[in-house]
Amino acid sequence: MNLSSIDIPNQVQRLVQLGGKFAVPLYSCDKIIFEFIKNIEHNFKKLQSSVHNTIRNKSITIINSVFSKFKKKNLNKIKIYKLIYITKQFLKNNSNIIFTRADKGNTTVAMDKDDYITKVNSMLQDEKTYKICEHVEKRIRKKSKFLNMADFLDTTIIKMGNSLIFDWYQKPTYSGRFLNFMSQHPISQKKGVLYGLVDPAFHLSHPMFHEKNLKFIVKILLDNDYPKDFIFYNMNDRIKTLINRQNKVTELQPMRREKIKWFSIPYVEGVSEKFKNIINGMCQKVCFFSMNKLNYFIKAQKDPMSRGAKRNVVYKINCNQCEASYIGQTGRKLDTRIAEHKKHINSVSSSHSVITDHRMEFSHEFDWNNCEILDVERYYNKRLVSEMIYINRQKKGLNLQTDTDALGHTYTDILNKI
Ligand SMILES: [Zn+2]
């Protein structure tokens, strides 16, 4: 929906319409490999140390397969990268436009920034807004009484003679947007989307509406780029399951639920699935999460944070006079941590600093204002692993060798290949 004063090019529309949850396949191998290593090591917190090395060694084979995966051309991927490039350019040239999520319904809305700010302010001050809502609600209730139909949750109740029949109903704010098939999500999640549509259509509606509703679902799924074969195969399958379930008298048995421990790993199509073979059975199950979501564009109403205000970062400071660099991590604001490095030289404390040593020994100064952010990672443990990976990759690093001891040597070969 475009509420802004600017015409939005088709290609930009196509991208933002995919929604904030759409996961874009990562562009480069290195980022994927770093994320795998970070998460494998992070999962070890939940596992006995005796299995760590076995898992590490087996994971190496899987991580290695990322390289060959990236050599193959993927047309869908190239299409999306093009759209992202065009969208970035568009946002750069039209800094007054923002994309945000509609309050209701799964829709992306484009607005003028000034307009958005004025609207939010007036909404907060205007008490009438609430009165209007009440009024509209009453009117809808009156109307539905009149029609013998009441829209209740996702069901429309229709009075037919003396009986009530039900039909599945979509709210007026219904956008028809679901997780797009091209998103870097496991196939199970895409089946889940289909089940999420078929199940209510089946359970909440009278059989006379089934055909109409299922046709409608096919249309929705096609709109979200689901292939026909996928839709028909899984729809048939699901309906069979639902009918079987209905016919079965289910005996309720108290389920003994053991707490499942999850081994979570980023999802990369054709690669991440392989982790199931090595993890399942080690009293853990594999679960996937998606990286690189389009939220980046769509939550844009926040003003971009300055580099120094960012928290949870892995950073690199370069020496102005030579190739030397230092890599560190902090959960606090980057500016705060950098100020500490800078001031350390004046402190009387006996704490050791390799940066201070370098400044004293060579009379070199660091480029404090152009500190690079290498990674942003909320979890402390993953941030530590990330820091070690980057230290390992430094050419002329000042970090001490012991800083990377915990990473182990298993990953050295892979990291050298990147
Ligand atoms: Zn230097």
Automatic annotation (TrEMBL):
InterPro entries: GIY-YIG_endonuc, GIY-YIG_endonuc_sf, HTH_animal
Superkingdom to which the source organism belongs: Eukaryota
Domain GIY-YIG: 310-392
Protein name per Swiss-Prot or TrEMBL: GIY-YIG domain-containing protein
